[in-house]
Amino acid sequence: MRVRVMKRPALVGIGATALLLLAGTTAFAVWRMPSSRVDLAARAAAMPVGKAPTVRPLPGKLQITWERVTLSGGVDVRYRVNRYAAAHHGAQPAGGCAGTIGGTACAEENVPNGIWTYTVQPVLGSAWTGRESEKSESVIVAAVNVPPKDLAADAASTASPSPSASASASASPSASASAGGASPSPGPSVGASPSRSVATPHGTDVQASNGEGGTAGVIGLGDRLVLSFSGPVDPTTVAHGWDGKAGLPVALKVTGTELSVADADGPLPLGPVTLGADGYAPTPLALAALLSLDGPHLVITVAENQPSPPVPVTKQSQLQWGPVKESGSPKDVDF
Question: For the whole model, what pTM was predicted?
Answer without folding.
Answer: 0.51
